[in-house]
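Can you give me the bound-state structure? Components:
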Amino acid sequence: MDRAGKPLFQSNYLTCMKTMNKNKEDVKSVSHLIVCNENRELIIMEQSGIKIKKSIKLPSVGVFIETYGLYDIDGKIFIACRDGKIYVVKNGLLSNQVYDIESKPVGMVYIDKSIVVASMNNVVSSYYGKGKKNYSIYMPCTITNIEKMIMKRTKSVNAALVALSNGEIRMFNNKFLITTIKTDDVIMGMRFGVFGREEGSLVINFKHGGLSVKMLQRQANLSVSNHKPGPSIKQDIPLKIKLFVELTQRERDHSVDMHRLFQKDLCKLRLKTAQSYISLLNEGHAPMSYAQGSKLRLNATTEGIGPIFKIKLELQNLSKKSMVGTRVMLSYATDIYKVISKGFHKPMTLLPQINYNQEILVENIDENGAADLIRVFIYNHESSMPLITANLNMPLSEVDLE
Amino acid sequence: MDQFVLAMSKFKRQKYDDCIEICTELLKKNEYDQATWLLKCRALTMKNYIDDLEIDEEGVADILMDDNAMATAPRPGTSFSRPTSSANGGISQNVRPMSNSGRPISGYMRPGSSRMGAGSSRGQLTTAMKANRPGTNRAVTSGGRMLRIGTASMANSGGQFIQADKINARNTAKKKYMAKAVVDYLIYVEGNFRRALDVASEATVLSKYEDWWWKERIGKCYLKLGMIKEAERQLQSSIKTQDMIVTHLELAKVSMRRDQALKTIEVYQSGLEAHPFEVHLYTGISRTYEFINDPTNSNKLCKVVLNFDNTNVEAIATLASYHFYTNQPEIALRFYRRLIQCGVNNSELWNNVGLCCFYASQYDIALPCFERALSLADDTNIADIWYNIGHVAIGIGDLGLAYQAYKIAVSSNPQHAESFNNLGVLELRKGNLEQAKANFQSSSTLAEFFEPCYNSALLLWKRGDFQESYKMIQKSLELFPDHIDSKELKKNLTQHFAAF
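Here's the bound-state model for the whole set.
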């Protein structure tokens, strides 16, 4: 009610902010505060911090700001926006230079005259000042933070720290991975800088509320090693040993003979295999069916320690049509075994793909508990050859003590 | 010639059956002839003697009822039962086939090599009840070779030689040398550790705890009965009395039982301090490293063993299989040739030589080796040889030959899961999708390795059955978590499911 009569007022939420020195590089000198708001504006404040010096309209809402240089002398402001593009503001004007990351930005740093952006598709890419892409590095999982690592006093370092969601922090110098720090929790935020007297220290904030401070050793070697990027572990390729060379020499010397012998042996092997195969088919030992056209799977197992055993049959019809009139038949030595279950002789209809279980009880009537072979045949009216056979080696039986 | 002297000479020449016959004759004439009785006892023991210093078999009952607390979450590289988590990176499952207990198939066939992995199909009651051993369905309750052969071979030794139940421990122990023979008989022939323990305990008391032999035997009996702490104490006390290599080996078995791999290595090394350059101790350490999936150390020690004993079959075989699986078939070939030189002549060796020749491109030698392997093979391993021939055929490109070879393998041994898997792939190539699926299914139920699970997952995915495919890929990743293709497939599936 007390708003009535006043002009409409839209509150603007701020998304990010950064400072930019006015005309001197010194830390303590005058600087401008630069903020972005949800209204797609880039606002540069006066050095007093009260009045707005300049307001620039951006095509999209900015989420990260990086600055370079001095405001009065050709300073550049890089703004990463929600639409996946990075805009450059030079001298207070939006320049035509636009960098397009193919995904949405998650973090941005300005190192060594290039913009390094971490994006949502797990890629860290780097762009030159002119607008060209320098490199992209692919990460194995999502990036949570990116932070620049710049040291001037004790060493000269220009690196980027990338924090991943699996708890790793990778240090990159240009596109080369220098080292990886493993932590055991997801990193929510980190900051590199001067901590007390230590110039190179990294403060890490974890998801579950922990805080960690890491300090860089003085002797730390942050130089890029000269080997090319790629699998850096020594490849386990066995060396070309003398033995190998001798054998290849043998091959070269006796190539014709070796080939001839080999072909001859191969023919012999083929013959032998074919012979064994056919004998198997004829004797019906094979556990897979061979009768023309039918496809059946039979799994037969024995259970029990005797004198009564249970033969478990698992039948599966592998063809597309159902099989009608299939019967189970057992062949065994009648003086050793006696079949107790009745009723498994009835013809079954096997629907495709369904597993049919059948149990047959067999008693060992031999006085010494001797073991013998029992054959299980599955057949139907189509042919006199069984559709599939299973040979069961029956175990020794316990003798009935009565 | 005096019959007794004849019997002794037969014994010395290892003709135990003849010796036993002669002794039985002599005993018929004079029942109280102690010397003959002792000789017969020794002959029976030696006939059934197995060098059990390096093997430690446990039956299902031992494992089911084992109360010894073992680490539930062992650190990687320290446990026998979780060999896939190795500290020193063994060879990946992609390259080297794994046995049922999750350990890579080693180059040397050791009976019942130590504990089975938790949750593997070997340890379950159902697998134990299945007719795996020819001749009986009964689960192996006491360790493999140390079975009570009781029922089957009673007829051979002419009735029980010693009525174990009627032995009076005290009296037997008093007859010093007889006691030793009796205890050995009870352990090796009868497998009756209880009685053996009774006699041995009495005897050790009588010898005022000064005889290392009794303490060692007691330790052995305790170990077999599952009382590990007591076994350890007895063996250590035996070492203090007299340091013998045998006792160190038994002590190592104790640590193995406890699933403490690093402790086992320590035990062997303390043995080495007392007995430097002892081949058995070195092989022991090498074997332990192999069990915890640390091939680099294992191989180093194999080489040390070979320095001292050029014909040590175990060391040569282990090194050969390691080199084969790390893409150096020529070196493996060299080792296997050495084994042939040493006089080993069995189908497995010829099979291995054939494979090495093939992969080292010496094709003219490869096939005759397989033929020889086939001729030497028996029912237990003929399936493996046909399976390898199938592999060679695939290498040549002759898929028809491969198909036939695999079918033969499968019919010789319907439990041969690897052949089923390969058959499935071949059927897939031919276009018989249903057959292929059935093959993969049988393969994955028969044995625990990741290939058939991955294959069926892939097949199901291609046919659009995403749910089943997902189940199979889970199984595959359980068995081999680092398999990149499985991980890819799972990612694709999860994306599919997320899109719904």
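A couple of observations. Residues 3-47 of chain B form one domain. The interface with chain A takes residues 129-131, 134-138, 326-328, 330-331, 334, 360-364, 366-368, 370-371, 374, 389, 396, 398, 401, 404-405, 407-408, 410-411, 414, 432, 434-435, 438, 442 of chain B (CB under 8 Å).
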